[in-house]
Amino acid sequence: MSTSNRLPLDGVRVVEFTHMVMGPTCGMILADLGAEVIKVEPPGGDKTRTLPGLGIGFFRSFNRNKKSVVLDINTPDGLAAADELIGQCDVMLENFRPGLMNRLGLDYASLSEKYPRLIYVSHKGFLPGPYEKRLALDEVVQMMGGLSYMTGPEGRPLRAGTSVNDIMGGMFGAIGVLAALREREATGCGQEVQSALFENCVFLSAQHMQQYAMTHEPPPPMPSRVSAWSVYDVFTLAGGEQLFIGAVSDKQFVTLCDVLQRPDLAAEPRFANNALRVALRPELLARLAEILKDHRADQLSAKLEQNGIPYAPIVRPDQLLDDPHLKASGGLVPMETDDGSITDVVLLPLTMGGRRPGVRHALAKVGEHTQEILARLKSRVTT
What we know:
This protein is an alpha/beta fold and 383 residues long. It is 38% helix and 15% strand.
């Protein structure tokens, strides 16, 4: 990214018909990178704005830097306005249930006849195939795609602790947009891009699929796995604090023993190399647990960092709001919300030319930009 105020996607216009997480994530990435992203909401606003419980943070997390337009696309006037607005945009995003956009005439086949340069991005549960008409949720595809099996203990499949497929599905949608924009430069034509939850989850499980293809043994769930490294675990320290420690080479194991002032452990011939230690892993971990139970996490962490041993405290999401690295590196910044309050939000996990694409606008209120956007339409439709 250049040192000017120009962003990579300046001049690109995106209209999104999305809700929940997957489609909004795609739109937010494009918006953060400079595109003008127009979020079309139904009368009363996207219901994601008012989700309770674990969904309460969805809207604030995935809808920054966008404009909000209210249209009732179930009415003739609203549908006509949506159609004309799409025609003024480079990219259209949608993530509604299969068949809905076809019924409204807002499917790719219908729109591409009128707008051949349009890049149309569908975020669905499944790519075309036997499952394509099924409704899907992140949890559904985690069960189907091997992720829940690999995450939980044997016999107890467990979903990951966040919406991994929704978020990554939106990322792949954005990657597809960038590729399609580049291809349009050469061909002059748009295209349909499809991103799907199930295929995303299978992509996450691909390494385990190859493990089976190479060994002909089904991979055990992560809690039951045979670790490739002898010291790669969570230990309980003084006061009940927990710390993950990973010594993944012979040199790191020797260094860890020195840090713990137990060079005798490293000197035992039975622990001379990683393969020998893995074979005796339960015994080794028990001995390390006994040594570590009297160490304070803050003091040990400083020594591990100084000596280049990978480690990590067990951190809750709420504690990340005060993480010194996130704050100092510019990855956690304030944003004005739709109710006028201020909240810290997490930026895209990348830098371009040393800069973090950041928050440019307050979170849009429901319909805040309706008049501005509809004034550009020839029909000047009001809703």
